[in-house]
Amino acid sequence: MHDLVNAAWWPPVWALIKIIIVLIPLLLGVAYLTLAERKVIGYIQIRIGPNRVGFRGTLQPIADALKLLFKEVLIPSTANRFLFLAAPVLAFVPAMLVWAAVPFGPNVAISNMNAGLLYVLAIAGLGVYGIIIAGWASNSKYAFLGAMRAAAQLVAYEIAMGFALVGVLMLAQTLNLSKIVEAQAGGGFWSWYWLPLFPFFLVYFISGVAETNRAPFDVAEGESEIVAGFHVEYSGMGFALFFLAEYANMIFVSILTTVLFLGGWYPPLNVVPFTWVPGLIWLLLKTTFLLYVFLWIRATFPRYRYDQIMRLGWKVFIPITIAWIVVVGIALETPMRAILR
Fold first, then answer.
1. Which of 13, 146, 167, 337 has a C-alpha 20 to 30 A away from that of 42?
2. d(CA 19, CA 21)
3. What confidence tens digit (pLDDT) does each residue in 38-60 have?
């Protein structure tokens, strides 16, 4: 066994095994998140939702996947063929790569990198290129308008998200995501960062909703205004890759919010029976709750006007985060330092 572990070929094989262990449940989760969304919004709006394929619609995601798999991929005659086909891949691949640094337990990750948070920010920012290139390569005015909206929205909310993460770094003093979770251990939900960094918590999660182009921030694909936005010319697997990327990013934003602000895999109270529940279950429960909030928001709020979205990002979120960075910085230089840490 010792020789097996030390073999030159074992590290890449073990890395591949870990990737498969993460990606297969993720893709299944993405598929069934679409079903959960349709069911949850249906119940909120007093409708039934999918209920024909399988028991109460449980096989609907499989039917949808097969439909998209066998659908013909049509390419507009005036489109840039190479970029048109590359855009869905450019949107989908970063949505998968970011999971390399996500911790699922103490030092349990595909790669427990010390600069994990920096890696996540760098890779997550690449996803918008797929959207912009899709809008431009389609040679469609509606698609191009959706791509430009997405670019402007990304810039506005990416800055606010970055400032929100500065507060986490000030308290945790590390870029390692596992160590950020461990810094929140000990006092139950009172020691999680959502409390001292509550404005950052709200700004980060709402900006995450905007970054994933979810309602009410889905102006990049506003059906009532620009048909379907940046992916209006896509069908079959091209459309499916954009769809997978959007839902994978929803799960990622939820689990990263859990890791940064909600104590990761730690229970809300350090008493029995909460401590009996495995840490991975707590991580998944918190992530599931935030995903429900994603769906709740979509079923509740109408789409904002584009100027309202820009105003919220530039004139509200960015000033709030800068002001709270100053507050946290001052608090860390006073006797409150011991409470925040």
1. 146
2. 5
3. 999 999 988 888 988 988 889 99
